[in-house]
Write a structure and sequence with these properties.
10 strands, 10 helices, eight-stranded parallel beta sheet, alpha/beta
Length: 278
Amino acid sequence: MTQERLDPQSVPHASGMPMLGLGTWQNDDADQCAESVRTALEAGYRHIDTAQAYGNEEAVGRGIAEADVDREEVFLATKVWISKLAHDDVLESTERSLEKLGVDTIDLLYVHWPAGEYDPESTIGAFDQLYDEGKIERFGVSNFEPDHVEEAREHAEMPIFANQVEMHPLLPQENLREYAADADLELVAYSPLARGAVMENETIADIADAHGVSAAQVSLAWLREKGVTAIPKATGEAHLRDNLESVTLELDAEEIERIDAIDVTDRRVHPDFAPDAW
């Protein structure tokens, strides 16, 4: 029996970017990764997120190629790792990413962290060059605090499109959301389910029960209500489809307030090279 595909047009967009995507962090089994990407696209996803550091760009590219979906319909994002952020390394590593992904253009290329070889002037100069050459459509940053974004803007000829950060109901990122709104910057949430911790929260579970949906759907719907794009990781078809169904869930104002009132700060990603502000 063929599973029904959710109409991709039902997924809200933010400045041309689908507000729900598939994250592929730790999806390092090549065959499984390719299959999950193919399955996701054929189920209705149109936003795929990967990174050089994930070691799966080739598998992601294979999944895109094998899916019964035109490349032009897919919003594809990847990230340049901190050891490849010197000017020439950005150019060379992005060429390799393009080859592995099997595409001519990357829709959104991020600086993965403001760390390692990152230098605002030389790193962003390389991103500007890639943009001018038509190899990337948009420039993004990841794990940047507002002061990092402002510094990057001083050196960027192109606009900074998005900041990808950890965000979920247990790490609501109020300051970053307020800054992004003022700065006309999209926010993209990785680990939007707090690596499963949202499933254990009573408030989220109660709201999920009231709607007859999963806690994951409630968390993803809450992010969408905040104007934030979410890229949950999933490999199995059941989880892929459950996450995708979150686009049909509407939370009322009282439910959003209850989630907003969760008094927890639970950051799940904090490497030793993270910004000092963390």
